[in-house]
Amino acid sequence: MLGILMRRSDWVTAAYLADHLGVTPRSVRSYVTAINRSAPSGDAIESGPLGYRATPSAAHVELGDADSARDAPRERVRALARQLLSSDHGVDVFEAALELHVSPGTIEADLRRIRSALIAADLEVRREAAVVSIEGSELAKRRFVSRLAHDHTEDGGEQLAAQRLAEWTGLEAAAFAGAGRELIDALSARGYAVNELAVADVVLHVAIAADRTAQGHPLPAPESSSTERAPLAAAIGGIARERFGIALGAGDLAHLASLVMLSLVDPSSADAERGRRPDPTVERAVASAVARVAATYGADLVQDPLVARLALHVENLVRRVEEQLLSRNPMTRSIKAASPLVFEMAVQVASDLSRDLGTSIPDDEITDIAMHLGSALELDREARAVVTAALVCPGIDEMRRQLERSIRAALAGDIEIVERSTRYDPDWSAFGADLVLTTIEPPANGASERIVQIPPFLLERDAARIAEAAQRVRRQHRLTQLREEIERWFVPGAFVRNPAEASAEQIIRTLGGSLIDAGIVDEHYIASALEREALSSTAFTESLAVPHAMTTSAERTAIAVAVAEHGIEWGDDRVSVVALVAFSESDRPAFQTVFEQFVDVFADPSNARRITRRAADLPTFVTELAALIEGDERVR
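Above: the chain sequence. Below: its structure as tokens.
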């Protein structure tokens, strides 16, 4: 709950929080009380007629104090991991249970919880009777700590994430944050362009190196040193001494300098990287992936500079994945909600690169690819939809022409004036344009949303009001198009309310089964949708998941829907509406319509709440969706 409130700076209703978390409003109130009791100063959450809202104190709440039972498993796992890493002879399950005041069965459960992280870090787990030990390199052990720290990071903003990562090394959160700022300053002073989104993970690795060195496990000195990276290594050494009180050896400094160059530095900005071409294998894979995604989506990508930049990025990405540098990108959620189509393009690129390069690409790295693709789109599709306008401007003819020139200059490519009137009493209903721009007062009963009154001499604020009205018209056009399509998209019988299924896979199979029964898709399509879900969660907003395949092999475009009043666990999210979308080759242009417009409707949590509360079956679901699209009364 704290994570939701910290992500959203506005008020959130108790009903929404209860539905999203799968609890009662009474539980929400008890959570608020417990969290405020744990705030260091003042309330972390304020309440009011509109619901609840996080205050600046929320970032400093120790969640362990709010719920000790919830914190205990994380503390045990951390203690158990430290024992496994520091002991040369292994950990006795019964002795660990006595030390941590739990049963041996609880320790066994904790071991199962961390086993996947051990295997992923290339550590071998050995067991003799009750004694468990791990074997592997020092680097593998550090990757294990990093993975566990990330797995136990709360979803609640960068400050809270940094606090949780700091806990795993026993450091003060303030020291952790201060080290990040100093590292960024050191890199910037040397002329590097810095990716600040990855700084928390790099500082975590510096902190892990300090912790392991303090335990007597430094990395061996390298056989050869890089004079080019010596200043960077010296800066890292200074930060470790100042912030963590540890003098790192040459092996650790060389390794950390390499990680910094991989994670924080834009390859094209580094002096040593300028003019260097990426690995030919990586460049070919990127070029192929970009060309394919451009053809699939009909995207107008400026491919040459994109391939060059993205290939350097992917080369670093491959090495980061090998080093298990798991960085967080706080923009993942917002990019998925605001630009779902661009994110889908990035998922396809990531899928192709994973296949061609043999590298699994995490969700946050897919977001980085989406940022590259988004910056290379030649034109915003929305900006191409020119809004038509009628100009009502009685009086001197030259004044009208000057006003029209000012409008064209300020809103070029955005507004096209197609009708003109110099009458003081025009027939307002006769104008066929999207907007009516008028220098005289419109009638009191006029269409206020359509008419924009402006002065005869255009000012900057007036241009801004026209642009805002044009944006409103475009959105209404998109939603109107969606309204015209929805009835033919939904399949009779392909609707489930409050599904009993416990997992995303089961719900996809259930909804997919209804589309198979209707002859729209086959089993291969459902398998492809599950494959797509495994690449990256299709929860595009806090309320909506849109699972789909990356192929367009359906007989026609169709949607199957599941609605749950108390939410459905979907990856790391909890959604209330699941819309399984099947696309056909002939309806490929509908991909953009379905995705961006459908997601747009559910971007407002109150819309999802209205749907889940009122939609008892498919006809009422379609009716409520149509009402939201057409701007009927909103849920208060």
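The two ends are 21 Å apart (CA to CA).
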